[in-house]
Amino acid sequence: MAKESTGGHPDLKMVNPSAAAIDIGSKMHMAAVNPDSTAMPVRAFGTFTHDLNDLAVWFRSCGVTSVAMASTGVYWIPAFEILEQHGFNVIPVNARYAKNVPGRKTDVSDAGWLRQLHSYGLLRGSFRPEAEIATLQAYMRQRERLVEYAAAHIQHMQKVLVDFHPEVTRVAA
Questions:
Q1: Residues facing residue 26 across a β-bridge
Q2: Quick one: which of 99, 107, 128, 115 has its CA closest to 36?
Q3: Cα separations (Å) of 91 from 1, 36, 44, 120, 168?
Q4: If you write DSSP's letter for every residue of the chain in order, what string do you get?
Q5: What is the rounded distance in angstroms from the CA atom of residue 118 to the CA atom of residue 137?
Q6: Per-residue tens of pLDDT for the chain, all 173 residues
Q7: What does the pLDDT read at residue 69?
Q8: What predicted TM-score, i.e. pTM, was given to this entire model?
Q9: Where are the domains of the chain?
Q10: Which of 28, 92, 19 is nearest to 62 (CA)?
Q11: Rounded CA separation 130/104 (Å)
């Protein structure tokens, strides 16, 4: 009895042929689109704003509507925001979940693999709050940091006063 070939994924249906993917890096982003849409389906882009705008223009010229991006750090945030401003449906993906397949060790193959998974609808997006909530969270984190810094500076001032005036043991708040 001959075993049927599974090459080409006969059981999987492509749900998003206009999908693209980006493997986010600190110095370079590798982007992949459907190979049928262009002669060069994987390209490298820089991380500066003009590079990200060029990426969005390239995606638009390739007919992309949805983009999955994988990153383990915070480098995905500018790309996410710029692509979202250009009207793309952007899905941040945890890189650990998408890269558990052996044999894909280069950025080019990672980007192509992510695009393939996204085109079949196999990637689950990470939670990203709405823009207003994300802004509020950033303000709250900054406030928390400033309060922590203020507490540390007060302790430094108290130490200096105690060191120069041993009879002062406590500073009135």
A1: none
A2: 115
A3: 43, 22, 19, 14, 58
A4: -PPPP-TT-TT---S-TTEEEEE--SS-EEEE--TTT-S--EEEE-SSHHHHHHHHHHHHHTT--EEEEEESSSTHHHHHHHHHHTT-EEEEEEHHHHS-STT--SHHHHHHHHHHHHHTT-PPPPP---HHHHHHHHHHHHHHHHHHHHHHHHHHHHHHHHHH-TT------
A5: 29
A6: 444 444 455 677 888 889 999 999 889 999 999 998 888 999 999 999 999 999 999 999 999 999 999 887 888 989 999 999 999 999 998 877 666 555 556 666 788 888 988 888 888 777 777 878 988 999 999 999 999 999 889 998 888 888 887 665 555 55
A7: 92
A8: 0.69
A9: 19-119, 129-173
A10: 19
A11: 33
| Lookup: tokens for 118 | 């996204």
Largest CA distance in the chain: 94
- What CATH number labels 19-119? 3.30.420.110
Per the listing, tokens 């992510």 go with 114
